[in-house]
Amino acid sequence: MSVISKDPSPPPVDYIKVSGGLFRDMTIHDFDMARFLLGEEVVEVSAQASCLVDGAIGEAGDVDTALVMLRTKSGKLAQISNSRRASFGYDQRIEVHGSLGMLTATNVNEHTLTSYTQDGVNSAKPLHFFLERYEHAYQSEMGGFISAIKGVDVVLPNMEDGLQSLRLAEAALLSVAQKRTVLLSEID
Question: Domain residue spans in the chain?
């Protein structure tokens, strides 16, 4: 599984200072999704990170670019690529490959028109921000919330899901700090 997650521009440095860092405020969503799509718990995390986009982020003690490799007990692999800046828009893509084929989820673009000419191919840029990108997902979440309030059985993430994603973020931080693969059993 491959996950690419890049924001169109870095958040304000004041946010960076209180956010818990890239792994806890950005990659954590990718960790959550990876756990769901892999269908089993991650047992190893290996991460590398740098400050390549905005020096002020580094001065605030964080990174803005990261690569993370996850491994499950059965050997399933996931790689996550994060950046705080994609000048062309909000870049969110997933690819899951297995023995029977592959599934992909690609960017949602400004429009679906593509021009093919002898001069090249032109297409729309990805939507610029997450509120646009996930508008329909937020509507579905609200519908699920309302159904839950009405007593309709709705499957929701639970506290354990949140805890496990946070453990992956902590393991990624430790991996970067110690320049090694971290076993999830080391994270309490």
Answer: 2-109+158-186
